[in-house]
Every structure is written in C-alpha cells, then in structure tokens.
Prior knowledge:
36% of the residues lie in helices and 28% in strands. By secondary structure, the chain is α/β, with parallel strands linked by helices. A hairpin with a 2-residue loop joins strand 8 (207-212) and strand 9 (215-221).
Amino acid sequence: MPPRYILKVDNVSNTYYETVGFKKVAKPVLESVSFDMLKGQIIGLVGESGSGKSTLAKCILGVIDYTGTITLDTKNPQMVFQDSTSSLNPSMTVERILEEPLIIRGGMTKGERMKKVEEALDAVGLSMEYAKSKPGELSGGQRQRVCIAAAVISEPELVILDEPVSALDVTIQAQILELLAKLRKKYNLSYLFISHDLNVVYQLCDYVLVMRRGKVVEQGYIDKVYNHPEHEYTKALLEASELIIKSGEN
Ligand SMILES: Nc1ncnc2c1ncn2[C@@H]1O[C@H](COP(=O)(O)OP(=O)(O)O)[C@@H](O)[C@H]1O
Ligand SMILES: [Mg+2]
C-alpha cells in the first residue's frame, strides 16, 4: 500500500487580538506552519512555553480559527492533555468515563461496551479493579492511563498528546512513554506528541518539528535533527537539554 497522509498542515497562521485600552492589537501566534503526517508516524512538536504548540493542536482539531489549509484525512482524532485531573469528570467512575464515547457512538449493547471497556483498561495496564474507582482515587500516572484509554477506545488513527507526561515524575513518565510506544504498535496509531522536553521527544518520536515564536524553524527525522541541527534555536534547545553531546563531531 502506498503511504497515506492522514494530516496535512499547509501555511497555517493564527492571530489573537488583545484589547489594549480602546484598541485591538493583533498578536501573531502561528506563522505559516506547514508539515505533513503519514499514517503511523509519530511527530514530536518541541519549543519553549508560549511558542504556539497548543494553539497549533487546537487549529488541527478545528476548535479555533486559522488561515491556511489543514487537511485531516481521518475520523475522530483524539486528544490527551497534560492535566489528567481536569480532563476527567471527577464524579464519574472510570468505567463510565470509558463507556461514554461508546454510548455516544451508539450501536453497541451494554455487554459489548463493557467488553470494550475491559479491553481498553487492559491495553493501558489497568486491571478491572479500577473500573469502579473515581479519578480522585487514582494516582497521576493511573489517571493519565485512563485518559489514554478514553482516547483509544474510539479507535482513532490519530492522537494528539499535549505535554502528556509533563506533570508526572520521571519514573512514571518512562512508564507512560513505554505504554504509548506499545499502543502505537498495537493499534497502528499516529501521534502528534507535543512536549517542551527534548529528551522525552527523542525517546518516542521518529520525526520532529521545532517551533519558535509561532514558526516551525526546523523539521526532519529525529536522528538527523538531533545529531545535525541546522537552526541556532534547535542547537540552543539541544544544548539546554544536554543532548548536544550526541552530535559529537559532525
Ligand atoms: N486565548 C488566548 N488569548 C490570547 N493569547 C493567547 C491565548 N491562548 C494562547 N495565547 C498566547 O499565544 C501564545 C502561544 O500559546 P500556546 O499555544 O499555549 O503555547 P505553548 O503551547 O507552546 O506553550 C502565547 O503567547 C500565549 O500567551
Ligand atoms: Mg501548551
């Protein structure tokens, strides 16, 4: 089968308007962002806080306006956020949280839905004993596992993860990254993985976009960009992550 693009972002720009006194002042947040994603690809989006990463995710999901063209050739793309506490309804049980998208989709019996819930929990490494728990009774890592289960239960091809491990301890981060790598293989998922942490991106991604002040200043296969960064900003980010050592002598 020829490779299929599930996402094409072409020349996308976004501007916020801030009110200063009586005037509206334009604040460009994204400027001419372009990249393509093949089915099955894991693209890392790196850049310091405020560079426009979350804004780009919102444009892709169509929740905010932009100029340019975004072609999303896939159904029900899913999103996983940094803050699992505010992502999950605190009054619902884990079981109910996972069942909800299946109820909305319709066409399944209660028994079929419960089987899917059990499979999704198993896929993220949680046993059925957590089914009746509420989010507040779980650890941060367990909650993020529930968020990931809630994303994959709708059988998406694309999952956008916005700083999914940034709020977690390093050991838990490693476990969640391992889980994401496993799920990617199991379900042939594509990820847009947003992180300010270049180490984390290196562990998971095969392609990387480097964003600075709303512009993608460099993009390419991860080994190429990390070993031979071309843009000064990429070099500075790698140096700050103590990853520049990998580049050695050209
Ligand atoms: N609703 C908003 N109104 C005005 N400015 C915003 C809004 N959301 C984000 N911004 C600004 O847009 C820029 C990019 O934000 P964001 O996309 O959240 O960056 P990142 O995810 O890389 O940290 C920041 O300067 C931020 O202050
Ligand atoms: Mg963000």
